[in-house]
Amino acid sequence: MLLTALALAAPLTAMAAAIPVKLYKNPNCYCCDLYAKHLAENGFKVELINTTDMASIKQQYNVPEKLEGCHTALVGGYVVEGLVPAQFVQRMLKEHPPIRGVALPGMPVGAPGMPGVKPAPLTIYTLDSSSPPKVFASF
Ligand SMILES: [Cu+2]
Fold first, then answer.
1. pTM over the 0.85 mark
2. CA pair distance 13, 106, nearest whole angstrom
3. Ligand 1 center–CA 111 separation, angstroms
4. CATH number for 114
């Protein structure tokens, strides 16, 4: 009886440590799968939701067109748009700033999910409607 309880408790504890993420993506986009893997390797538990209507998702979560990436993720009450490295998602969750989320627009080479060497530092923006958008971080 006690042994059974212990055996059940171990995997549950491991699961509780992972941060749940819901990731909406187009089933035909490969970089999103690589990005999901990147998140999973860095302490997130990713739920992939395939949709061919990403436009509605961007609209639903109020992602300005100029900040659009190839997928939209939801984590801890925040929106994470595009290939934002896990460390910056973790930083946002830890610091808990009063923003709606963060975005790395487009599909830049050198971001997680887009292998290669980035030609210049990449900028992560705060996800809001200010123009120009505010810089959250660069890497
Ligand atoms: Cu993608």
1. yes
2. 36
3. 11
4. 3.40.30.10
Sign of CA dihedral 14, 19, 22, 28: negative
Count of domains forming the chain: 1
E strand residue ranges, 1-84: 19-25, 44-50, 72-75, 78-82
Residue 123 alpha carbon to ligand 1 centre in Å: 17
pLDDT per residue as tens digits for the range 76-95: 999 999 999 999 999 999 99
The mean of the pLDDT values for the chain is 91
d(CA 38, ligand 1 centre) in Å: 12
CA of 129 from ligand 1 middle (Å) equals 23
Domain housing 88: 18-138
